[in-house]
Amino acid sequence: MRTFCFRSGGQKLNTTQEKPEWLVISEEVRTALAAGRPVVALESTLIAHGLPWPVNVETARESETAVRSAGAVPATIAVLNGVPLVGLSDAQLEDLARLPNVRKASRRDLGAVVALKQHAATTVSATMTLAHAAGIRVFATGGLGGAHREGEPFDISADLAELARTPVLVVCAGAKSILHLPRTLEILETFGVPVVGYRTDAFSTFYVRDHVPPLPVSVRVESPHETAALFAAHVRMGGAGAVLAQPCPVDVAVPAAEFDAWRSEAEKAAIAANVTGAKVTPFLLARIAELSAGRTLAANRALIVANARLAAEVAGALAGFRA
Ligand code: PSU
Ligand code: MN
Fold first, then answer.
1. Which candidate in 43, 64, 267, 313 is catalytic?
2. How do residues 87-100 score in pLDDT, each as one tens digit?
3. pLDDT tens digits for range 8-47
4. With CB atoms 3.0 to 4.6 Å apart as the test, which of 50, 97, 162, 253 could cross-link to 125 if both were Cys?
5. Ligand closest to CA 45
6. How far is CA 35 from the centre of its chain?
């Protein structure tokens, strides 16, 4: 059997068959992968922890629809009853959006939630791990995790470490504007992760489009085809993850000055409430959504869907770069 290998850190991705037996891939996703058709992974932490009901399930469904309209198959990823699933059904997606006590799992938690038969929403890091195991190369989310500004200085998202080791292209609106963005970019450079600006020279900063000063991307591309060529070359030469950063849709983006006031207020509230660890990001996002009277929620939703659409276009272009 002919196999196509994408090497990274000693890992080998076999994009024909032989999926690991511990992973459950939906029929539709399996068929698409076997036929070499484009598939886009979607994460579940933004459903369970990043957005409130019912915006969460609506956003998840809109993202899946956007992927399909652009000619790819969506594969929303989560762990239910200890089973890692690639390609949730609509009922599973709704369960995940409604369940109150779903664990937020990054890469380090995957073994635990499987062994203990728990439900878990997967962050960027855990979703990349499972997408890669399934043979999916493109993944869409809202904003990356990164280095936080306040609190514990070593609170640096596992998303960054995952990008260093797993060959998946993460399509996002850059990193969350609640983060220390220059530090986040420095860490990505240290880890050898290309930060690709989609039709922009400035790194995207989630809800905000006018970050001052503009932060540099490592390279700019103009099309899905250029993105696919870049990512294929990166992986062929032993690279792992890459970031494709697209700015938030202009009609819903929030001005930096307004955002900064909400952010610092939310940070103070997090410190006062002693919020640490994995709870920091969901807490800040929820508080900022309240302070902005829902404006950041609308922006978050729109940017997630826009990223899903772009990811589908890139996955289509990447289908032409197999070997
Ligand atoms: N994008 C969003 N909302 C989110 C996230 C991404 O629009 O809630 C999630 C992703 O799952 C990402 C996580 O991995 O936030 C980062 O969490 P932490 O800072 O704890 O690593
Ligand atoms: Mn963290």
1. 43
2. 999 999 999 999 98
3. 333 444 444 568 999 999 999 999 999 999 999 999 999 9
4. 162
5. 1
6. 25
pLDDT digits (tens, 9 = 90+) for 230-263: 999 999 999 999 999 999 999 999 999 999 999 9
DSSP class of residue 299 equals H
Residue among 45, 63, 280 whose CB has most ligand 1 atoms within 8 A, to mutate = 45
Nearest to 172 by CA among 188, 156, 150: 188
The dihedral of CA 124, 170, 78, 51: what is its sign? Answer: positive
Q: Phi-psi category of 269—alpha, beta or left, where left has phi over 0 and alpha has psi -120 to 50? A: alpha
d(CA 161, CA 126) in angstroms, rounded, equals 11
Q: Which ligand is nearest to the CA of 106?
A: 1
What is the distance in A from the centroid of ligand 1 to the CA of 49?
A: 8
Distance 36 CA to ligand 2 centre (A): 35
Coil, strand or helix at 267: helix
CA of 277 to the centre of ligand 2 (A): 5
Looking at residues 310-315, what average pLDDT do you find? 98
Q: Render pLDDT for 67-93 as a digit per residue (tens, 0 to 9).
A: 999 999 999 999 999 999 999 999 999
Does ligand 1 have an atom closer than 6 angstroms to the CB of 246? no
- Expressed in angstroms, the distance from the first to the final Cα of the chain is 14
Which ligand is closest to the CA of 151, given by its number? 2
Any known ligand binding at 201?
A: no
Q: Which helix (H) or strand (E) holds 138?
A: strand 138-140
DSSP string, 64-131: HHHHHHTT-EEEEEEEETTEEEES--HHHHHHHHH-TT-EEE-GGGHHHHHHTT--EEE-HHHHHHHH
Atom of ligand 1 nearest to the CA of 278: 20
pTM for the complete prediction?
A: 0.94
